[in-house]
Amino acid sequence: MTTTASGVTLKILSGLAVRGAFEGGIIADYEARTGNRIDVAWVPTTLIMSKVAAGEQADVLVLIRDAMDKLVSEGKVDPATRMEVAHSRLGVAVPRGAAHPPVGTVDEFRAALLGARSVAYSRAGASGIHFESVIDRLGIGDEVRRRATVIPSGFTAEKLVTGEADLAVQQVSELLVVDGIEVVGKYPEELQQVSSFSAALMTGSTQRAAAEAFLAGLNSETARAAYLASGVDPA
């Protein structure tokens, strides 16, 4: 860990869904309260798991609940520090100013995907893995994949801004991080996947007090407002 003039710098590995909330007030609130600094690597949960398996260390992990369960069983995080943070739903976005296709029912959602020139999704993220299962379930997997814009990781809505795709699917909070897009709606409930995110201290952290202070702020009123503003529901 590094030390700043006023305190320590915490290293955090975090899934993308909470980025809007963290950058929308949670990190600034923590830094103002403590004098510490936050260094966040924003990566999909699948890549966090790969990094941890390869021996990468951080002070705090923020990732999908099932993955956190696995790390608890492996002794990689301290279960006493674990807390539930937020719940995220999947949605659909278009470039700003574009027509909004209806997506509220399964038939509408299917028609929107088939009517798109290209759908952007992330193969590494939980949202992309679920999306591939959805299009197979709808019987349109081959057709959608043939025209899809698939990214290894990151924010799918960026492909709307560049013009490479005209629909993007991802966690609503991840879509909203990108300027120049509009969220047209969430997946129909029959196709929806709610991702619950947990946070915990890695057992190898040498900044326990500073990290615990960060975790303590994740359910504050400031944090709750930031979650809601960014498109996720507080836990």
Summarize the structure.
With 235 residues, this protein is of the alpha/beta class. It contains 10 helices and 11 strands. The two termini are 29 Å apart.
Topology:
Blueprint lengths: L8 E6 L4 H16 L2 E6 L2 H9 L6 E5 H9 L9 E6 L1 E6 L10 H10 L3 E4 L3 H12 L3 H7 L1 E3 L6 H4 L5 E5 H4 L5 E6 L8 E7 L6 H9 L4 H10 L2 E2 L1
Parallel strand pairs: 1-2, 1-3, 6-7, 6-8
Antiparallel strand pairs: 3-10, 4-10, 4-11, 5-8, 5-9
Helix pairs in contact: 1-10
* Unreliable stretches covering 5 or more consecutive residues: 1-5
Instruction: Give the overall pLDDT as a whole number.
Output: 94
Instruction: State which percent range the strand residues make up.
Output: 15-25%
Task: Provide the spatial order of strands within the biggest beta sheet.
Answer: 2-1-3-10-4-11
- Number of DSSP strands? 11
Radius of gyration: 18 Å
Can you offer a commentary on this structure?
It is a single chain. The protein is α/β, with parallel strands linked by helices and 235 residues long. It has ten helices and eleven strands. The chain has helices at 19-34, 45-53, 65-73, 106-115, 126-137, 141-147, 158-161, 172-175, 208-216, 221-230, and strands spanning 9-14, 37-42, 60-64, 83-88, 90-95, 119-122, 149-151, 167-171, 181-186, 195-201, 233-234. The chain has a six-stranded mixed β-sheet with strand order 2-1-3-10-4-11. The protein has a five-stranded mixed β-sheet with strand order 7-6-8-5-9.
Keywords:
five-stranded mixed beta sheet, disordered N terminus
